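Hi everyone,

Forwarding the result from last night's run.
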Amino acid sequence: MSKLRSAVKALIPRSLFRKVEPYGHLVEAVLMNIRYGFPARGLHVIGVTGTNGKTTTSFMIHQMLVEAGYDVALMSTVANGVGRNITPQVAHMTTISSPQLLKSIRAFKKQGAKWLVLETTSHALAQHRVWGVPYEIAVMTNVTHEHLDYHGTFEHYVQAKAELFRVAARHGHRFGVINADDPSAKVFQAAIGRSVTYGLTHGDARATAVELRPNGSHYRVVIGEDELSITCNIPGEFNVYNSLAAVCVGRELGLSPQQITDGIAALKGVEGRMDTIDEGQKFSVVIDFAHTPDSFERLLGDLRKATSGKLVVMFGSAGRRDESKRAIQGEIAGRYADEVVITEEDDRDIDGQAIMAEIEKGAKKAGKTTGQDLFLVHDRSEAIRLAISRVKHANDAVLLLGKGHEKTIERSDGEHPWDEAAEVRKALRDIG
């Protein structure tokens, strides 16, 4: 099927291919389900969608269920597996192809999985890659400016994600978990009959007495008849939201308050998500997968508050992806960081220098000056070294965005091996 899809893609205009592509994925999904005997049947599936926070929320839900004794599998951007046996994800996308997905589900069931937490993208929903998966609990983290290069409009993007809730309305629990502070919340509520909302400002489950700490957060939440005291060991206000979503799932499944609080506290981190690298240096170095304007705003805002010294941020922007966000992210970085280093992310077949120039415009708009507090270094390894060399004090911080956990980087001549954490550790040792 993949060879046929490639041949069709080469023969017809890109705009036409985008219109017919979902039907090809649907046919493939139907045929693969028939071939493998509809492997997802009998499996209780929790789907997590949203622009940001999908991976961490999926990990939180999975960890909570593991701690509560559930036989639960996880499929996410970062890792897949059953129970505590989780291995890195090698695919360069969140939701893999239908054949790979169904093979994995079949393997999970053979390993005893009765539940699956499945991170699910708008692309996978719009392209029917997850056809045949009986989602019964749908979770929405947030919906912000992303993937408009594919969906065309923000409204189409929201509706693509809401499809997860329409599917969940037909199976099992038929339950939705929705971020009430998100402007699109009502769209998701309308897509499913029964739901619970969460948030810091609005929601059925609202966090109060929130304490943001360098290594996590603590807050209280009233849900139903219970008041829970939650400790989240991953920093950032956005992870208060992510953990609230997990709390709501636990409540729907009937977990006790103790099981919920213990489960949230048990997760100590997710690779490439607010991942701190320590080689004995005085300053902080943090890696994160953030690659949208909203995630930049939240992450840089949180880190700016926590950094009393110099804050240096390094990032790029992927080719063949939403071009309109590049200058926006440059402006956000320029506004929060003391210095900005612009580099490659995944150029693919797009001119990397041109991508960097678009980001540069936004950073300059925020007051940055090229060569003084704004630097363009296309080679990502060299950019990492430069960013690290710009700090030296204990209260300084370097934030490296965009790649996170990914093990490849896409350039004009194809994919190359990449390990952001390893590159950072090498740079720290070399620079001393």
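The chain has a mean pLDDT of 90.

Cheers,
N.
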